[in-house]
Design a protein that fits this description.
This protein is of the alpha+beta class. It contains seven helices and twelve strands.
Length: 308
């Protein structure tokens, strides 16, 4: 089956608009059943007038009710390239969400937050395709874990889930494997990497719904055109930031070399000062020795005069 690459906003938006898919996506990652869900996209446009780049971005907020009756705010971020602007943007966005009250059933609430990051690049230090950054309460007096949760603390800190799509392997066993399989970055039909062949035998109803949506997005001419426009824009941005990163690294190397040279100069000056200091110390010792000898000679002369 031919399907669209779901890491692009125009495609992922179609997935999140389907309530069944959104429930499956979030409940599988959080490993909690979701009783109800409301997903709304948050629009953002990145613009670089000097290069004529304007990219429409979407973040997603899901308000979910879990099986234990709790209500959470889920922030979903799709980040395709590794650059400083996206990192700062989402930190600011996260801060805004912490300040914001949400309306649930007509009541204003401060909801606990969970974040989901879907990354189109690899984090070098972590090889896992999907991991959970989890908080724990620990009693530092008795050195043991605290099982209870605090309303206050839960709204001041949050868990994160991270998916590295380029590390997704060829597994199709668990429910999580089946969800991640649609994000797998393999079997592309051409160099653009906007559509691919989905080769797994589908045995999960939710995965069937997902692949049907992705199949439409990858084969319908208008949907495919929107996907290719976004893909080309991100290629341009990726190249732009790669060039900025190259220039930054070059400048950093030049500054480092200059600092190393200055460090060497300081070392030479310190060595020269140490030599002068040692010379002065030796001169002081000679002067002290001379003073001692002169004093001994003086005392001997005085003693000889008294003997006469």
């Amino acid at each position: 089956m031919i399907i669209a690459n779901p890491i692009y906003d125009v495609v992922f938006k179609r997935l999140m608009e389907n309530e069944r898919v959104a429930k499956f996506f979030i409940s599988t990652l959080l490993r909690r059943e979701i009783h109800s869900i409301r997903v709304r996209p948050q629009e953002f446009t990145y613009t670089d007038e000097s290069r004529g780049i304007a990219v429409f971005r979407l973040d997603f907020i899901a308000i979910v009710e879990t099986e234990d009756g709790g209500t959470k705010k889920i922030l979903i971020e799709m980040q395709k390239v590794k650059n400083h602007i996206d990192l700062i943007r989402f930190r600011s966005y996260l801060a805004e969400q912490y300040k914001k009250e949400d309306v649930v059933d007509g009541e204003k609430l401060t909801l606990p937050i969970t974040t989901i990051y879907i990354l189109g690049f690899k984090i070098p230090e972590i090889k896992s395709a999907c991991f959970h950054v989890e908080r724990r309460y620990k009693d530092l007096i008795d050195n043991k874990l605290i099982e209870e949760k605090s309303y206050f603390v839960e709204r001041l800190s949050h868990d994160s889930y991270v998916v590295q799509v380029k590390r997704i392997g060829q597994r199709y066993q668990t429910r999580l494997d089946k969800l991640l399989s649609v994000f797998e970055q393999r079997h592309f039909t051409d160099a653009t990497e906007v559509v691919k062949e989905y080769k797994y035998e589908i045995d999960e109803e939710e995965v069937k719904v997902i692949t049907e949506i992705l199949h439409y997005s990858g084969t319908d001419p208008e949907a495919r055109k929107a996907l290719e426009i976004e893909q080309e824009a991100w290629r341009t941005i990726d190249a732009y930031f790669a060039e900025k990163e190259r220039k930054y690294q070059k400048k950093l190397l030049a500054v480092t070399e200059e600092l190393n040279e200055k460090g060497k100069e300081l070392d030479e000056k310190n060595k020269a000062l140490d030599e002068k200091k040692r010379t002065l110390e030796e001169q002081d010792k000679l002067l002290e020795e001379q003073k001692r000898l002169i004093e001994e000679l003086r005392q001997r002369l005085e003693s000889d005069e008294e003997g006469e």
